[in-house]
Design goal:
Elements: E1 2-6, E2 9-16, E3 19-24, E4 28-34, E5 37-44, E6 49-54, H1 61-64, H2 66-71, E7 77-82, H3 101-115, E8 121-126, H4 128-139, E9 144-150, H5 158-166, H6 175-185, H7 187-202, E10 224-229, H8 238-246, E11 251-255, H9 262-265, H10 267-279
Parallel strand pairs: 6-7, 6-8, 8-9, 9-10, 10-11
Antiparallel strand pairs: 1-2, 2-3, 4-5, 5-7
Helix pairs in contact: 3-4, 6-7
């Protein structure tokens, strides 16, 4: 098999018994009306196994999953990435963070995939997207085939609140970290939305045990892979171990050098791990 590029499209030359096949693996973009909002999504591949990529806080398909769109097997998988309501290109509306914002995102995600005519699908969720994926899988066992989460948590502890408070001031971020978000939102809106997210995630600490979705974990019945970067400064190691203990039959894979963005920094290793799990 060989790859070549032309403009925004990637083409694959595949040899078969019938000769040489040429097909495009370009990324398709569109909007789907879901629960009163026009949700932006991107899609690539032609495989029979549909996979939805769920981004982190303020993230989008474009900013959070470049290596996955590029390299996940296009013949085995149909890969969909979305921008949750109020994020990325799913604006308007303006993003807000009521106590049920994760449940709202979970319903939007599932309804989007059904609207795109995928009867069953797997979920790959990073950070906030992982929380959304956990809720979606617990509430829709007949629809979700497999689940992969990384950089995610089912509750907010006082230690987490301290971490969030330390990164509230984006002027202290490196330019490399700020730039993609400022390009997406503009500096003023990014600052306001990020501070609203810090307040929004922090409010869970006031709930019993700081729960976000602790009660739902035993309801996750699909095969589940939890990935954790052992150098993740955003998510203490007790979080993936809690998920492992409370999701029946789940497994935990540790990446010793991985940080919060392990799927970007170690994309080849991550993609291989995920593909092997999804193909089991």
């Amino acid at each position: 098999m060989a790859l070549f590029w032309r403009g925004a499209h990637t083409f694959v030359i595949s040899k078969s018994m019938k000769g040489i096949l040429l097909y495009s693996t370009s990324v398709k973009s569109g909007k789907q009306r879901v629960n009163g909002v026009d949700l932006f999504y991107q899609q690539t591949g032609r495989g029979g196994h549909a996979v939805l990529l769920l981004p982190g806080a303020l993230g989008s398909a474009q900013t959070d999953f470049g290596p996955q769109f590029k390299s996940l097997d296009k013949e085995r998988f149909t890969v969909v990435g979305w921008d949750p309501r109020g994020y990325g290109n799913s604006r308007p509306p303006q993003r807000d963070f009521p106590l049920d914002f994760f449940e709202r995102d979970a319903k939007d995600a599932v309804d989007l995939m059904q609207g795109l005519k995928f009867p069953r699908f797997s979920l790959l969720g990073w950070s906030d997207g992982g929380i959304t994926a956990l809720i979606a899988a617990a509430q829709n066992p007949s629809l979700v085939s497999k689940l992969v989460v990384w950089g995610s948590n089912a509750f907010v502890s006082e230690r987490d609140v301290s971490i969030y408070s330390a990164i509230r001031d984006i002027s202290r971020w490196s330019e490399r970290m700020r730039k993609p978000m400022e390009e997406m939102y503009g500096a003023k809106l990014f600052k306001a939305t990020w501070e609203a997210w810090v307040d929004g995630i922090g409010q869970f600490a006031q709930r019993p045990e700081g729960t976000i979705c602790m009660d739902l974990l035993p309801k996750v019945s699909c095969p589940t892979l939890i990935i954790h970067g052992e150098k993740d400064p955003m998510v203490p190691s007790f979080h993936p171990h809690y998920l492992l203990q409370h999701i029946k039959g789940s497994r935990l894979h540790l990446m010793p050098e991985g940080k919060h963005n392990l799927h970007l920094r170690y994309a080849a290793e991550f993609n291989k791990l995920v593909e092997e799990f999804l193909n089991e």
